[in-house]
Structures are given as C-alpha cells and as structure tokens.
Amino acid sequence: MSSKSSTSSDVMIEARGLSKFYGEFAATRDVTFSVPRGQVCAFLGPNGAGKSTTMKMLTGFLSPSRGEAFLAGYNVAENRIAASEHLGYLPENGPLYVEMTPETLLQYMGEVRGLKGDLLAKRMAWVSDKCSLAEVWRKPISKLSRGFRQRVGMAHAMLHDPDVLILDEPTSGLDPNQVHGVRDLILELAKTKTILLSTHILQEVRAVCSRVVMVNNGRVVFDGPTGDLGNNEVDMEQQFRKLTHSAA
Q: Any residues with CB less than 8 A from the CB of 92 and at least 6 apart, and which?
C-alpha cells in the first residue's frame, strides 16, 4: 500500500526533521525544508556540513535516526520503490560498473527500470546527446576520465525521465566547456523537473538556482531566494562565510 504525504502535490522534495546520529556525533540535526515542483534549489554548506548525508536520506540510501523524507509525496522509508520511480540521483563520485561501456550500462539500467524497445532506445539516444557521450559510447568506463564518468552518472540519473533530480556536485571533474553544457542542461530540465543541486561553486548557484538552502554543522542556517545572499559572487561568498562561521 502506498504511503503518501498529506503535503500539497506541488511539493516534490521534503525533509521533515531529518537527523542522523553516529553515536554521540550528529551528522545532521532536524533538517527541515521543502522544494516545490519546478524549482531549482541549491543545497550549500562547507565540507562536513551534512549535505551528502541529507541527500542520502532524501533518496533512501541512508535511513535517518529521526525524521522523515518524502519524494513526490511518497514517504521514502515506507514506500521507497514508488518514491524512486520519480527520482534521478547523482551521488558524488557515484559507483559505476567500470567493465561496462556507457551504452551497455544504460541499456542494463534502463531494463532494470522497466524501459523496453523503442522507448529505451529513444531515452538512451536522448541522454547520450544531452551528456555528450557519443565519442565514448562503446568505450569501457574503466578507461574514461573522471569528467566522462560524471557525465555517464548524469545520463543514468536522467534515463527514466524522473520528476525529481537530486544532484551532488554534478560538475565535479568537468572542464569549463562541459560545466557550461551541464548548466544549460539543468536550466532546460528545470522547465519540467524539480532539482536539488549540491555544489561549492557560487557562480553555478547564481547561474541556475532560484533558491538556496544552506547547512552548517548539520543544521539549516539559511533558506531563501538566491538574491538574498547578495547581488554578486563576492557578496555571496561573504554571506557564505558569515553563515558558516568560516575563517577561511
């Protein structure tokens, strides 16, 4: 039986008091926010702030010690399969089957998700084009650069045309031209998708995100429009340092 949130159907990503404890250490504590349909939301914070832990709880890859996560209205803990049907997830340094090629990996992953025939072929062609994989399409993933592996992971996240994308450092390892391409792709996807984007690049936030949720020491310290952090990257960096108490 499906377990859905009572939240409005316009809310596609929701964290309710998400906390994760390892002994006495709190990786996150009472993280609460929601992302409405069609929004690109940046998820910011210094290293070790709890970003990846929160994303893993939102996607069901990690169970919270306390609190609840919802995707497309589904309680992730109670109905992970239904929630995952709406989710495309790109973890930071996500694992890939390196003995496969991008073509065979996406074929396999598509079949696992129930895609078949012409639909699978069309989706594979679409993600190959959007992620610029043609030149390495039949090359073993073990031979690919970090940037190309990141693009294969992005293609995998988008293959089944999900409503929600959770992307952890999607431009990590990419050259400037590839970064520009990914930003354009995110803006295109934002027309029909809800996107939660973790990044350390403030220029990227200004380019593609309308809202920012910032965490520090496992807690939410800012949640508001991107413009509220400043009108330029210098102002945003100063605000980031202030909110995260960084002396760097």
A: 52, 168, 169, 172, 198
- Angle ∠(88,204,157) on CA atoms, nearest 5: 10
Domains of the chain, earliest start first: 1-86+166-248 (3.40.50.300), 93-161 (no CATH)
pTM: 0.90
Per-residue pLDDT in tens (0 to 9) along the chain, 248 residues: 444 544 556 899 999 999 999 999 999 999 999 999 999 999 999 988 999 999 999 999 999 999 999 999 999 999 999 999 999 999 987 789 999 999 999 999 999 999 999 999 999 999 999 999 999 999 999 999 888 998 999 999 999 999 999 999 888 878 888 888 888 888 888 888 999 999 888 888 998 999 999 999 999 999 999 999 998 889 999 999 999 975 44
Q: Please, are residues 213 and 33 in contact by the beta-carbon 8 Å criterion? A: yes
